[in-house]
Write a structure and sequence with these properties.
Layout: E1 4-5, H1 20-44, H2 48-51, E2 56-62, E3 67-70, H3 76-82, E4 86-87, E5 92-95, E6 110-119, E7 122-132, E8 161-165, E9 168-169, H4 171-178, H5 184-212, H6 214-239, E10 245-251, E11 261-270, E12 273-277, H7 295-310, E13 324-327, H8 346-361, E14 378-384, E15 390-396, H9 424-430, E16 433-440, E17 456-462, E18 466-471, E19 481-482, E20 492-496, E21 502-504, E22 508-514, E23 519-523, H10 538-547, H11 552-555, E24 562-563, E25 566-567, H12 569-582, E26 590-591, H13 596-607, H14 619-623
Parallel strand pairs: 1-4, 12-13
Antiparallel strand pairs: 2-3, 2-7, 5-6, 5-8, 6-7, 8-9, 10-11, 11-12, 14-15, 14-18, 16-17, 17-23, 18-22, 19-26, 20-21, 20-23, 24-25
Pfam families: Hydantoinase_B
GO molecular function, one term: 5-oxoprolinase (ATP-hydrolyzing) activity
GO biological process, one term: glutathione metabolic process
């Protein structure tokens, strides 16, 4: 049953013609309102994940629930279709259950607040914000258990509920929720920050409507949506062919010894629509690496990629959704059946961007990016300090952005452009640790005419005994290069005990005991290279050797010989000639590195870890493919 909207003023909107100047003013006012939402959030949240790293995502939608500004696309339409209740002036909805909104939020750590905006008795817009809570209870600190086999093990699940009903705050409900989490002070502060952000945007929307009139404001939102539709229609016609193209990539493992998991997508244009079909993707995992991919979210991902690559001037919104047909098999890794665990979904989420980029780039290789830092690796550290006070860290790591048509990939960057690093000073002030090293991992970016960005080598020294957990990927299957560029280096994690002994630890591992004085070397992966590395300017390679981005030995992958800190021109020419003779005349569009079976055979020697085993799917699971 669809939600019932209660309005004291039943008069319909009467959209009016809108001139370009007014449209421009309203468009930029909406952009600014989104920025103000972010600013409000980081000033009032407490957890480092939201306050320091910005792991939260705003949205402003029109009165029908269509996103006008935001990042993940609107989940409001599917929510309204499935919400058996009323929406009234003074209400505010909260939820965290992915299964209640078709995967619009993809794990229970993301708490979402939705505020319907009423003006003069009519619903005129929606504002919303969701952010990652550092802990929501469950079987492990941080509430993202790698070994979870059910969403019930991952912490409190909140179905759509009213935290404000006709303006009255439901304090009993909030108290009930906060008793389920390990860090209630942080959670409550972060929830209040989400609420405040939505209220700020609601005020700005009402101000716009008061300034220009309700009908003009509605006309402006309609035109912004239609403009996006027209632009995307043209981009699809010129950039997507009718002949199907396919691509597949992998999540390395599930943390339980099995992998890799294949994600496959086939794309083609059917009339004016583009079809994205994930048939051939592996069945869902018994572990938590499943990603409940919402169709609208994928449409927005596709739109963001198209817009930013081909026409970055467009303000992306929901207006183009009718032009995209998304097909995801039920029971697959990207459409798991309830109650599948979802907390480790970040690896598949990020890999979607690599897959989309590869699909679109096959027709237009000049726009093709390599595989990059398509994940958000997590470190968790928890325990009790000498004062008896519980501490718990959740931090997102950064890595190498791929080599691109226009230049090198940035070193040590986030998958999400808006994320920022937690300052080392903050970590050392609020947690019992010292950051001994924070630097680029030399040679981790894939060689190319445009080098892939390097990963990060970050070393934590723990001052208190406790437990750590690691969530990362790309340790088994390397990030591929394109147009002659080579793959980037894979991720590694090394635990160095206080006595100096070292152990390679898994990239998805829970409950690792650490003692005071132990160090963790958290090394992330680099981006793949773009273009022929033998065409890279030797002077630039020499400069990067001086900067510590490339080693003397690593320079040889570019055919560059460094002697005494400078390029040996004669030796460089000889090496480049020899390398050209040894390789095919035509360089591959995609360089994946060794095939899966070769990676398995060499895994222990190359990574220090046993190779993941291929899972034997049941007949039911295979039917989902």
């Amino acid at each position: 049953m669809r939600a019932q909207i209660i309005q004291s003023n039943p008069a319909p909107f009467n959209p009016k013609p809108i001139d370009p100047v007014t449209l421009e003013v309203i468009e930029n006012a909406l952009r600014n309102a989104r920025v103000e939402m972010d600013a409000t959030l980081v000033r009032t949240a407490m957890s480092p994940g939201i306050r320091e790293q910005g792991d939260a995502f705003p949205l402003i939608a029109d009165h029908q629930g269509r996103m006008i500004v935001g990042q993940f696309g609107s989940y409001i339409g599917p929510f309204l279709d499935g919400y058996d209740g009323t929406i009234e002036d003074g209400d505010m909805i909260m939820l965290s259950d992915p299964y209640s909104v078709g995967g619009a939020i993809s794990h229970s750590n993301d708490w979402l607040v939705l505020l319907p905006v009423f003006k003069d008795g009519r619903l005129i817009a929606y504002t919303s914000m969701f952010g990652h809570q550092s802990d929501i209870g469950g079987m492990v600190a941080g509430s993202m258990p790698i070994h979870a086999t059910s969403i019930f093990q991952e912490g409190v699940r909140i179905p759509p509920v009213k935290i404000y009903k006709r303006g009255e705050y439901n304090s009993d409900l909030i108290n009930l929720i906060m008793t389920q989490v390990r860090t209630p002070d942080w959670c409550k502060a972060d929830l209040n920050a989400l609420i405040a952000s939505c209220r700020v945007a609601a005020r700005r929307v009402v101000e716009m409507a008061e300034r220009f009139g309700d009908d003009v404001f509605v006309a402006a939102t309609d035109e912004l949506l239609q403009r996006n539709y027209r632009a995307m229609k043209q981009l699809i016609e010129t950039s997507v062919g009718a002949e199907p193209v396919s691509f597949e990539d992998y999540i390395c493992d599930d943390g339980m010894g099995f992998g890799p998991y294949k994600i496959k997508c086939t794309m083609w244009r059917d009339g004016e629509k583009v079809v994205l079909d994930f048939a051939g993707t592996d069945p869902q995992s018994p572990a938590s690496v499943n990603f409940f991919l919402n169709e609208n979210m994928l449409k927005m991902f596709f739109g963001i990629y198209m817009i930013m690559v081909f026409d970055p001037r467009i303000l992306f919104n929901d207006g183009f959704y009718d032009l995209i047909d998304v097909r995801i098999p039920k029971g697959s890794l990207l459409k798991p059946e309830f109650p599948a665990a979802l907390s480790g979904r970040t690896h598949a989420l990020g890999r979607i961007f690599d897959v989309l980029g590869a699909l679109l780039g096959q027709k237009t290789p000049e726009f093709l990016n390599a595989a990059g830092f398509s994940s958000s690796p997590h470190l968790f550290y928890s325990g009790t300090d000498k004062r008896g006070k519980y501490f718990q860290l959740f931090q997102i790591g950064f890595g190498g952005i791929p080599g691109r048509p226009l230049g090198d990939g940035p070193d040590g960057h986030s998958l999400w452009p808006g994320f920022t690093n937690v300052p080392n000073e903050f970590l050392e002030r609020y947690f019992p640790m010292v950051i001994e090293r924070y630097e680029t991992a030399a040679d981790s970016g894939g060689p190319g005419l445009h080098r892939g960005g390097n990963g990060i080598h970050m070393t934590y020294r723990f001052l208190e005994a406790g437990q750590i957990a690691i969530h990362d990927d790309r340790w088994f299957v390397p990030p591929w290069g394109v147009n002659g560029g080579q793959p980037g280096a894979r991720a590694r994690k090394i635990l160095e005990k206080a006595d100096g002994s070292q152990t390679i630890v898994g990239n998805k591992q829970e409950d690792i005991a650490v003692d005071a004085g132990d160090q963790l070397h958290f090394i992330t992966w680099g981006g793949g290279g773009w273009g022929d590395p033998l065409e890279r300017d030797p002077a630039l390679v020499e400069k990067e050797v001086r900067q510590g981005l490339v080693t003397v030995e690593g320079a040889r992958a570019y055919g560059v010989v460094i002697a005494g800190g400078i390029v040996d021109a004669e030796a460089t020419q000889a090496l480049r000639d020899a390398l050209r003779r040894e390789r095919p005349d035509t360089l591959p569009t995609f360089d994946y590195g060794p095939d899966i079976e070769t990676l398995r055979a060499n895994c222990l020697a190359e990574t220090g870890l046993p190779a993941p085993r291929q899972r034997l799917w049941t007949a039911t699971a295979l039917a989902a493919e």
